[in-house]
């Protein structure tokens, strides 16, 4: 293959981008010391609005339900907690840690209006919040 081959160039660019993404991921999701107060990561969220309600799903696999706190603050909901790392004193060697661990927090600005938390559930690693729209 020649160096000026477009397929080779595209392949090299793709590999370089993947390496950069992996380095960036390692920088973002580092295990913090247990005394750290700042959140180490933010969970992904889906927010869907219907005519009379607002539904929020937060993906939290591996997080015990008792470690999750939900606070409604004006026009925002704050979800925080802690996912314990799988590392124990008996751990011999870590081969790969790609899942973020430690303290998390996610602040979600709600659409304009007034809301009341009507339901919440925690199943299959997902926190589901249902807000009723107040008039």
From TrEMBL:
Residues 36-135 form the SHSP domain. InterPro entries: A-crystallin/Hsp20_dom, HSP20-like_chaperone. It holds the Pfam family HSP20. It comes from the Bacteria. Belongs to the small heat shock protein (HSP20) family. This is HSP20 family protein.
